[in-house]
Prior knowledge:
The protein is α+β, with helices and mostly antiparallel strands.
Amino acid sequence: xKKKMNKVILFLLVFAVCxxxxxxxxxxxxxxxxxxRSYSASTYRTGPGNIKVTFEIGGTRTxxxxxxxxxxxxxxxxxxxxxxxxxxxxQSSYSHIMTSNTAVHSASVTxxxxxxxxxxxxxxLWAGRNGGGDSRSVTTSAVTA
Length: 145
């Protein structure tokens, strides 16, 4: 009787684990939103002191506007992080970070930093269509210039 009860408990545990992992996979397979299918951002060292921030955003269909509205770059000074550069799509030098009438957009910005310093970025993303839209933000990992 004890062996049979152990088998029943084991079966129920295995069943519960399978059921919960299926729910987890289904939740993660859903689109990011009605407007955003996927998004990512990264920070890279491109040479001594040089930093590059890249991003990609995919819409669920062709969007009226898609890309980054702003990118904030931070530098580690001792034990605290300080904002050192703001990139806005409304500035002519950075208008390329937002585009129109496409489903996917990727772009990058560069910063001439200080060799040996650490940097990270927070990238604000947007996808909009027919007067509606959605936004997401991504904070990159820190990189040493």
